[in-house]
Amino acid sequence: MPRTATALLVLLLLSALAYGAGVTLFRAQTQGDSVHLEWNAAHEPGVSGYDVYRQDYPADDFDRLARLSPTAQPHYLDQNVYRTTAGRGPVIYRLDVHTATGLRTFHTTPTPAEESMMVRSWDTIKLMFR
């Protein structure tokens, strides 16, 4: 019986560590010609690092943008996103969280930047004269 209790306790501890590798927030926000990525990781004692990737349209593969230490700030600014993307097609970001129990992957796409009233008005004026 004590062996069973010890094995159960070890399994419970390992599952808690695996569950602790969760990211509660991963989002991308467009800021001009850049994309700001941010994430909020739940308490993650077993994290050994983060990898940030981008998939440019029309490519099928992800290119690694950065490898970050577990103590790094939970954000990344991609300043080259629209310089390398042909025609500003769809972009997908991936965050890999490396832990002692394995790899967890999260995906997101950039949300559009808030347009100002001036930009919307200028676009409307340009449409009137086409």
Automatic annotation (TrEMBL):
Keywords: Signal
Signal sequence coordinates: 1-20
Cited InterPro entries: Ig-like_fold (IPR013783)
Protein name as annotated: Fibronectin type III domain-containing protein
Species whose genome carries this gene: Hymenobacter perfusus
